[in-house]
Amino acid sequence: MNDLMNRISNPACKERDLLIDELNDLIVYGEVNPTDLESIVKQLMNQLKHEADPAVNESIFNLLATVFDNGDLTHLIADETAELLNQLPAICLVHAIPIIAYSHRPDKSSLLRPFVHDKDDEVRKMISEILKDLNE
């Protein structure tokens, strides 16, 4: 697992997004133990703060959404996502918005409301549907 995570965090490594997708598959099929899962999530959340490759960022958020949807590390993922929310591109927002919307965070409506007027059609549509679901 350490070798895989080292390759994912190395910007010189090619196709890191595919490595993250491979890691996501391992998580989906229960091949990652809870201790490793927490370490992976923390490392990837940290990587998001400086990652320049949009494909890698999208793959990270896809993995985080998988972990979140499984009910694992939901507070950690939601809290870290909330800190990054306003600096994310649309390709990541489609994964990040549901994380915030279905999280424990009492401020989720105030975090999400600014995206009602986002420049991306998909983001605006998603926000509209989510706010309806949340009765906002």
How helical, in percent, are the residues? 55-70%
Tally of separate helices: 8
CATH topology assignment = Serine Threonine Protein Phosphatase 5, Tetratricopeptide repeat
Instruction: Indicate the multimeric state.
Output: single chain
CATH architecture: Alpha Horseshoe
Strand residue content: under 5%
The Cα radius of gyration reads: 15 Å
DSSP strand tally: 0
Q: N- to C-terminal separation?
A: 42 Å
Sheet bearing the most strands, described? none
- Class in CATH? Mainly Alpha
How many domain units? 1
Q: Overall mean pLDDT score?
A: 95
Which structural class fits the helix and strand makeup? mainly alpha
> Can you tell me the overall shape?
globular
Features:
single chain, 136 residues, mainly alpha, Serine Threonine Protein Phosphatase 5, Tetratricopeptide repeat, 8 helices, 68% helix, globular, Immunity protein 30 domain-containing protein, ARM-type_fold
Provide an overview of this structure.
- This is Immunity protein 30 domain-containing protein.
- InterPro entries: ARM-type_fold (IPR016024).
- This protein has helices at about 1-10, 15-30, 35-50, 55-70, 75-85, 90-100, 110, 120-135.
- The protein is an all-alpha fold and about 140 residues long.
- The radius of gyration is 15 Å and the shape is globular.
- The model has no long low-confidence stretch (mean pLDDT about 95).
Question: How would you briefly describe this protein structure?
Answer:
The protein has eight helices and no strands. It has 136 residues and is mostly helical.
